Amino acid sequence: xxxxxxxxxxxxxxxxxxxxxxxxxxxRDLYNSAGSCVACHMADGKGQPGxxxxxxxxxxxxxxxxxxxxxxxxxxxPVTVNGKQFYSAMPPQLLFGDDQLALMITYVNNGWGNxxxxxxxxxxxxxxxxxxxxxxxxxxxxxxxxxxxxKQKANGTFKPDFDDVLTxxxxxxxxxxxxxxxxxxxxxxxxxxxxYYCWDAGECRLRYSWTKGGFIRGNRIHWSSNGQPVAExxxxxxxxxxxxxxxxxxxxxxxxTNLKTPFYDTTEALDFPIRISxxxxxxxxxxxxxxxxxxxxxxxxxxxxxxELIKSSEDHSGIVRSFTVSPAVPITFRLTPDENASITAxxxxxxxxxxxxxxxxxxxxxxxxxxxxxxxxxxxxxxKGGNQ
Amino acid sequence: xxxxxxxxxMGFALMSATALGGxxxxxxxxxxxxxxSKFQTNQIDGMAFLPDGRMVVCLPxxxxxxxxxxxxxxxxxxxxxxxxxxxxxxxxxELVISQRPELTRVRDTDGDGKADDFxxxxxxxxxxxxxxxxxxxxxxxxxxxxxxxxxxGSSGNGVRAIVRGEFDPRGRPGRMHASTPYRGCILxxxxxxKTIPWSYGHRTPNGLGFDLEGNLxxxxxxxxxxxxxxxxxxxxxxxxxxxxxxxxxxGFDGIPIETAPGELAKxxxxxxxxxxxxxxxxxxxxxxxxxxxxxxxxxxxQLLVGEMNKGRIMRVMLEEVGGELQxxxxxxxxxxxxxxxxxxxxxAPDGSLYVGHTKHTWAxxxxxxxxxxxxxxxxxxxxxxxxxTGFRFTFTKPVxxxxxxxxxxxxxxxxxxxxxxxxxxxxxxxxxxxxxxIEISGDGKVVNxxxxxxKAWHIHDVNIRGLKSAGGTPLxxxxxxxxxxxxxxxxxxxxxxFGGKGSSAKKQSKRKAIAxxxxxGDVYHVHEAKRNGPTLDSSHGGFSGRGYADFGDGEQSxxxxxxxxxxxxxELLFRxxxxxxxxxxxxxxxxxxxxxLPFPSTGGWEEWGNLSAKVSLRKxxxxxxxxxxxxxxxxxxxxxxxxx
Lengths: 388, 644
Hints:
The complex is a heterodimer of chains A (388) and B (644). Chain A is an alpha+beta fold and 388 residues long.
């Protein structure tokens, strides 16, 4: 382990760390202990997209005194780290002594390729005694410990939008933006009941839905800037619609914007879930209207116009998708069995592989209910969210 | 980018710096309050006026606001659009919006003042997910057809994993790319709902606009294939220079970026006005005709063009010469308190001009400016016309004849920008043009300049020095650049003015896809297969789909899912090309290894052959895989399945 630890050390690590690599290991063990930094910033230091900033390569780690202040007093509010916006709260680390914090901060400064200084117990002790007793806002933190002159432009903080500080969704929020796991023509919708979903207008289908962790973050940057960023959210979709064109290991790449060629284009997407005839048909998006603020999508598949309106379930544990098919014909709907969701239909019965056959009169108007259910898997420290 | 400036011309450059700038004094600028966006942005990407007199603005956040200019009241009409970059007003409750994924009809159908219906008018174009692929402003003609313009993608980033529309690798390479349908094109939505390509060869066509005669114009920004920013007279089927979009032109089979620039130069339609880079414009935007209702001076029928990089709105005066439009551009509302990023413009009911500013991480600004004319004719050239021997300026006021009759007042130079693949162009063939004689009309308003030479296919550019009106008013704007394509008579053949070669000096066969001759079974192109490792390439010709699978090192495989109507024997034919011999691949059917296929050399990378294998298929789906044996593999074009 020590050998691996040494490889992980940045080139510029201090003599202190060089001389005592066991300190690096101790710091890493403390970092990764239960309830410690790892719970949010993760073992790989990459944080959680949309909610927790990375420590690996972070542009906030230029000043060890600021790092000490954040660890001792906490930091709450909007921060911009490596160009990404976060609106979260880092609590003060009250459970650790000066010597332990010094080891942990030294590890953070030197792990994952970071090249920062070691921090001593004395430094932490002095800071603890002299720093004002309050949780810092980013503004106050950057006033006390500003970025170096040549990095002033990085700013480090931002003025949050209403959806950064959103806690309870009271009216549906409808965005069109770049979403991971969808074509570039995508919707992100937040529903009262704090259910969120991604709907792909490029393929006329629901892609995934999630509930915990909040809606998408920092989307203003995509719209107002040059359009590069793909939206991020902190949450694990409890339902993800099937796609024969994507393997689960592809999901990490679905937010990438730098590919030379795509995995596939929508003219090849012949696995549309709703089948109205023997042939695989490509759907055609027609638009949407707002009913009480909720978008009702409509799209054409062969001779049929299909409408789809999604609302939160009554108990707010999932979503209810209401469909109409006109003219009413028998359909085969291929849903995706998922261990994290329970799926029921208002008519017909869903087979084990997710297939639902509906007679014409059933297809005229029906509902699919998808509720999150907790998988019977013990929680580990690597609950990654976001781009899955 | 080099600007070729000789010491002799240095003086002109210095003069231009002091002569330009300063808002035309007869025009007052005022700042309009910002819309109350929820997203802390007041960038303006679309602007128009409703029949009831309120202004409509579109923000990058997807919000569309109405503004009552007199009451100073804002109203949020619609939200949830994806980078709306232009608007056509149909009524007080119905708009047509250009947004990234669509041309959309946005309507308030229940009369509550908020849009509730968003109908796709057209989404028949591609999106690769590249950030630079904007969908710029729509315009509507008198017959009810719409024209809208699609920007290309930038090599500043790539494409997404899932792209909308057919991906064509021929359009992918280049500084700006067009790998999905109609990027770099202007599209027309006919009144009966069909989307058809209208013109090609655009790079960043930000700002369609009609003149009063119904001619359609669009600008483009300096960049690859665009030596300096331009104004184009858009017509059906024309190619305006940027290569990538040729991918989507029916009948164009090559790889656009590898086509010889000389060939492209012959195909392209030239700009009617070139905006000299830096001195005139860097990033022109919206084209707006000066209507009879506009209260903006004696310039009805001329065009205004916005500019991003500095606070400037230009004026364009066109005339028809040799059957084509060409003419002059000059700064008009310039400097002073005018903010940069002049992206959108519209005439208010009271005849004043509203300007919407934007930036999106490029040079620019935010907010809305109102420009009001004081009713007094400014001292400007009302027109600049080509004559047989030079140019005729018609001024709005009599000129000071003493100054005007001196050749030093008119230091013309002429040059051209090269047409080539690389980004921007320096000025070529720069030369001063001497004035042989000057005639001034009796009333002092018309100045006829006889030049030593008029060079066709060159820009003739002058910074008028020290000219005042007879009454002592300085000339408001002094830099006039006339794009002299054709002469009044005896125009020499077009000087193509291109640079660079095709991408390889050796003449290669055209890399176009060929039709599969007489297939005996179902053909599954390799672009329909799952590629685990092999890339889809198209540098060698003779493939039949979108390209061939190029095997590399390591454990790579191709996987097709083929349907069989019944179970039984079938013959698989793999079409491939292989120069170096013997790169066998393992054949698997439905997970079972059948055999190792010896792929012998076909004799060259553009020599294609078929390898046959007999297998048993089951009814329904069958998974057919070719897996590498550690010796790479040939270029696989398609699989044919011939059922007995």
